[in-house]
C-alpha cells in the first residue's frame, strides 16, 4: 500500500519486516520460504519474527500517536537479549553498531592467534532481533527512529518513513488510506 520511498539505512529492515503482513488481505510473507529467506529465517523461526514484527508495529503506531493495534510483548523485552557491539572504522573513524556474534580469530596458527584481531562471525549467523536492535540504535543516533511510523488506518497499519517537514504524517499513502479516511469524514458530515 505504501507509495512512499523506503526508510533510510537500517530502518528499511524494520519497515520491511513490519510490512510482511497485509492486514487487509491477511497475506503474510513470512508464510513463504522466499519471505523468510529475505530475513534469514528458517521455517521454525517465524513465531519469534511475528512477535517482533507486531511489537515493532505497536512502536511505529506510537510514533504516530496512535494506540497499539493489540496487546504485544514490549519491544524492550524482545531486544534485551540482542547484544550489540560498537564498530569503529580505522580508516575514517566512523562508528556504528553491529549484532554481536561469536568471535573467531581471523588467523588460526598459534603464534598468529595471539596477535590476530578478533572478528565477528559471518553475517549469516546474525539473528533478526540483533539486526533490528542495531538498526534501532543507529537510527536513534541519526535522529530518524521516531520518523518510522505506522498508518493510522485500522485495516492497514503499514510502516512508512515520514519525510514531511513537520513529521506529522498519518497515512502510508495519501492516495489510498488518506483518501479513504477523508471520504469517511466527508460522508459523516
Would you write up a description of this structure?
The strands form 3 sheets. This protein has a two-stranded antiparallel ribbon with strand order 1-2. The protein has a two-stranded antiparallel ribbon with strand order 3-4. The protein has helices at residues 11-18, 33-37, 46-63, 75-79, 110-115, 128-142, 174-188, and strands spanning 84-88, 95-99, 103-105, 118-120, 148-150, 159-161. With 189 residues, the protein is an alpha+beta fold.
Give a summary of the structure in a few sentences:
With 189 residues, the chain is α+β, with helices and mostly antiparallel strands.
Low confidence ranges? 102-126
Main structural class: alpha+beta
Order of helices and strands: HHHHEEEHEHEEH
CA distance, first residue to last residue: 27 Å
Helical percentage: 25-40%
Radius of gyration from the CA trace? 19 Å
Largest sheet: 2 strands, antiparallel
- Write down how many β-strands occur, each being a DSSP E stretch of 2 or more residues: 6
Shape: globular
Mean pLDDT: 81
Per DSSP, what share of the residues sits in E-state strands of 2 or more residues?
A: 5-15%
Q: Strands of the biggest beta sheet: in what spatial order?
A: 1-2
Q: What is the overall number of helices?
A: 7
Amino acid at each position: 500500500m505504501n507509495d512512499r520511498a523506503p526508510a533510510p539505512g537500517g530502518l528499511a529492515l524494520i519497515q520491511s519486516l513490519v510490512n510482511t503482513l497485509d492486514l487487509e488481505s491477511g497475506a503474510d510473507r513470512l508464510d513463504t520460504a522466499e519471505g523468510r529467506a529475505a530475513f534469514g529465517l528458517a521455517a521454525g523461526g517465524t513465531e519469534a519474527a511475528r512477535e517482533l514484527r507486531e511489537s515493532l508495529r505497536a512502536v511505529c503506531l506510537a510514533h504516530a500517536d496512535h494506540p497499539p493495534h493489540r496487546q504485544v510483548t514490549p519491544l524492550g523485552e524482545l531486544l534485551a537479549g540482542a547484544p550489540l557491539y560498537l564498530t569503529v572504522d580505522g580508516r575514517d573513524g566512523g562508528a556504528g553498531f553491529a549484532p554481536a556474534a561469536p568471535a573467531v580469530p581471523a588467523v588460526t596458527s598459534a603464534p598468529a592467534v595471539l596477535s590476530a584481531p578478533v572478528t565477528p562471525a559471518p553475517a549469516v549467523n546474525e539473528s533478526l532481533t540483533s539486526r533490528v536492535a542495531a538498526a534501532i540504535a543507529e537510527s536513534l543516533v541519526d535522529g530518524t527512529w521516531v520518523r518510522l511510523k505506522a498508518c493510522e488506518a485500522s485495516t492497514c497499519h503499514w510502516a512508512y518513513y515520514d519525510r514531511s517537514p513537520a513529521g506529522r504524517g498519518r497515512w502510508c499513502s495519501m492516495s489510498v488510506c488518506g483518501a479513504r479516511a477523508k471520504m469517511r469524514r466527508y460522508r459523516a458530515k
